[in-house]
């Protein structure tokens, strides 16, 4: 009999604590390790062909690390070894695993992955041709020889822990954010102003007038050293650098020395039901390094594991970087974004043709009323009523916007856009057909077209009824498919809170506090490996809580064939729970926005591709129009 594992305290609403026994945790860990194929890859790539055989297999070692992760708490090798000893005592391990074996092998595989020495295993014997001496080609279906980077290592383990026993991925939308992990190594020097990498356009908060908590510069003899990347190295940790971490709980931004952990989670499709937000991809980079490069690595790792990434939600730490590093890099991968704009990205700029203007990253006709052009931002501290009112103002811009029309011209990097009168959203005197539309469309105050007395040509003074070819690079950093500030934009961007919730969950409830001494290793590679094991454990525990608090069986227990759990539906039957709120992105698609009290405008439009499948064919409740359809929108009454 083993005692239940003591895990970090759970939020009050969780009735049953996650109380996996050591035997259950070990079984889950084995299933995760086997699903990744990592043990075979290490076996194939790292084992010496000569000399004494290994005492402990890679599968056993990885299982011990993952079990320790599932158990939770600090990821210290002494504690991992303690878990291994308990597993041996309970007959769950084939052989003893010592502290030295854990340390040496962690070092071995993490260093080897960084040096590109690890590839996936072949499912057949490798045969050398007797004629050429070259290894013969793989039979079809073999995935051997694929390089396993440390990002792919993390993505494989995180994917395996999030989708037990053949569960399927059913989203194409993901949220990305980074959180800080301080290095364990002691600081030998300090710079009040961190030397962050500004090659991608990152800006130091001090340079924008923001106040940051940072101690005064100090030096000990011989420090800082010059790091391999040209930045200052303040500790014996070769990879740790100085950077900023965002302030929490009303605190200012702070300077720290260590790593940025870039984490990706899944969020629902627009209008779809809730899904558990587990960690799916992890990139460990020196603090203050190029966030765009790390974010792209995280997305590539997701794709390598088989996710269909179509939309990414991330904060200004990424989206404010140079278009060439972030916006265009995502566009090249066919990934769209919904994001918040920095104050420098906002404002009115001239459009590509006369009569058009760029406002907050969207192309409008200049018939848009002046009072809608410079709207205030959504500051912290606004009440719900004020936010709704402001959203309503942004929604009033919707009928004046141009919209892409037809496919992208990939040769020239351009796309055609149609003006709002052609889209049948406004009535403009310069488009006689639009004047026959109903009066629920705004009527513009455009001057009628005139004839130039010199050239004799007809001059149309507004952009309402024009088609324009726009370069994809024009304001690429500011552009997004949904118009900034509108209700539907809020509904979409609001899903990003999932990654913030995950990060705070990790740090406050799940025992991964990322304090300096959460793990005591040096270097990005080893830290990355241990953080991965920790996140794998958090995924297993969160999935269990997510399903059990919804009265369903823990999918991991189902996957390993364990039937000792009670029927959670019965256990929680008498529980009185607060009714769950519905997300804005769901309410917008069903036309149910109960928090609105005043009569609602006919906007926002929900583009057809964002509607739930069963509502795609019809108009919803007479309140939602299709902005992409070629036919004039349905007019109720
Ligand atoms: Zn092969
Ligand atoms: Zn006009």
Taken as a percent bin, the fraction of beta residues is 5-15%
Number of helices: 16
Number of domains: 4
Summing up helix and strand content along with how strands pair, one would put the structural category as: alpha+beta
Shape: globular
* Uncertain runs: 1-17, 618-637
Region (Disordered): 200-225, 618-637
Organism: Cellulomonas soli
Protein name: Transposase
Biased composition (Basic and acidic residues): 204-213
Q: Could you characterize what this model shows?
A:
- With 637 residues, the protein is an alpha+beta fold.
- It has four domains: 184 residues, no CATH class; 177 residues, no CATH class; 109 residues, no CATH class; 60 residues, no CATH class.
- 28% of the residues lie in helices and 13% in strands.
- Strands 1, 2, 5, 6, 7, 8 and 9 form a seven-stranded mixed sheet that branches. A three-stranded antiparallel sheet has the order 10-11-12, with no helix packed on it. A three-stranded antiparallel sheet has the order 13-14-17, with no helix packed on it.
- Strand 3 and strand 4 form a beta hairpin.
- Helix 3 crosses helix 13 and helix 5 crosses helix 13.
- The chain is globular.
- It starts with 21 loop residues before the first helix and ends in a 47-residue tail after the last helix.
- The N terminus and C terminus are likely disordered.
- The site of one zinc ion (ZN) has 5 residues, from loops.
- One zinc ion binds next to loops.
- This is Transposase.
């Amino acid at each position: 009999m083993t005692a239940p594992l003591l895990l970090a305290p759970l939020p009050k609403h969780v009735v049953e604590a996650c109380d996996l026994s050591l035997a259950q945790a070990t079984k889950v860990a084995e299933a995760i390790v086997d699903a990744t194929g990592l043990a075979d890859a290490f076996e194939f790539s790292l084992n010496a062909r000569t000399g004494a055989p290994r005492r402990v297999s890679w599968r056993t070692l990885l299982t011990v690390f993952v079990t320790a992760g599932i158990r939770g708490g600090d990821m210290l090798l002494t504690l991992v070894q303690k878990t291994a000893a308990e597993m041996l005592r309970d007959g769950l391990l084939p052989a003893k695993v010592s502290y030295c074996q854990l340390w040496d092998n962690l070092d071995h595989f993490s260093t080897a992955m960084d040096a590109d020495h690890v590839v996936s295993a072949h499912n057949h014997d490798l045969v050398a041709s007797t004629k050429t001496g070259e290894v013969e080609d793989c039979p079809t279906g073999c995935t051997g020889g694929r390089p396993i980077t440390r990002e792919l290592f993390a993505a494989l383990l995180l994917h395996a822990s999030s989708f037990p026993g053949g569960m399927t991925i059913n989203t194409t939308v993901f949220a990305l954010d980074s959180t800080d992990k301080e290095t364990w190594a002691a600081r030998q020097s300090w710079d009040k102003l961190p030397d962050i990498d500004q090659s991608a356009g990152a800006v130091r908060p001090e340079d924008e007038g923001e106040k940051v908590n940072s101690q005064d510069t100090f030096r000990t003899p011989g420090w800082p050293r010059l790091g391999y990347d040209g930045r200052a190295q303040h500790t014996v940790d070769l990879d740790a650098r100085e950077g900023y971490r965002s302030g929490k709980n009303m605190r200012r931004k702070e300077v720290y020395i260590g790593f940025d952990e870039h984490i990706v989670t899944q969020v629902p499709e627009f209008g779809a039901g809730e899904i558990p937000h587990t960690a799916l991809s992890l990139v460990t980079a020196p603090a203050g390094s190029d966030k765009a490069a790390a974010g792209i690595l995280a997305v590539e790792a997701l794709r390598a594991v088989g996710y269909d990434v179509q939309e990414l939600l991330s904060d200004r730490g990424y989206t404010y970087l140079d278009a060439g590093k972030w916006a265009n890099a995502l566009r090249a991968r066919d990934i769209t974004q919904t994001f918040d704009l920095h104050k420098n990205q906002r404002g009115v700029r001239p459009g590509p043709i006369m009569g058009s203007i760029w406002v907050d990253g969207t192309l409008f006709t200049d018939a848009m009323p002046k009072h809608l052009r410079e709207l205030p931002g959504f500051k912290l501290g606004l009440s719900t009523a004020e936010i709704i009112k402001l959203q309503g103002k942004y929604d009033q811009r919707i009928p004046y916007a141009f919209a892409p029309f037809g496919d992208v011209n990939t040769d020239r990097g351009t796309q055609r856009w149609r003006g709002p009168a052609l889209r049948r959203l406004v009535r403009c005197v310069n488009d006689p057909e639009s004047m026959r539309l109903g009066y629920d469309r705004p009527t513009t105050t455009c001057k009628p077209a005139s004839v130039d007395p010199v050239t004799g040509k007809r001059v149309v003074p507004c952009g309402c009824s024009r088609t324009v070819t726009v370069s994809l690079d024009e304001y690429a950093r500011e552009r997004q498919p949904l118009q900034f500030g509108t209700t539907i934009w809020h509904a979409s961007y609001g899903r990003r809170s999932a990654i913030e919730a995950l990060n705070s969950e990790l740090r406050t409830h799940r025992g991964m506090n990322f304090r300096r001494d959460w793990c005591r290793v040096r270097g990005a590679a080893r830290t990355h490996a241990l953080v991965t094991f920790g996140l794998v454990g958090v995924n297993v525990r969160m999935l269990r809580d997510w399903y059990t608090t919804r009265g369903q069986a823990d999918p991991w227990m189902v996957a390993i064939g364990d039937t000792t759990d009670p029927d959670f539906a019965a256990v929680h039957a008498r529980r009185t729970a607060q009714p769950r709120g519905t997300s804005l992105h769901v309410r917008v698609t069903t036309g149910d926005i109960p928090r609105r009290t005043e009569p609602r405008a006919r906007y926002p439009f929900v583009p057809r591709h964002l509607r739930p499948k069963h509502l795609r064919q019809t108009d919803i409740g007479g309140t939602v129009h299709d902005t992409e359809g070629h036919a004039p929108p349905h007019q109720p009454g």
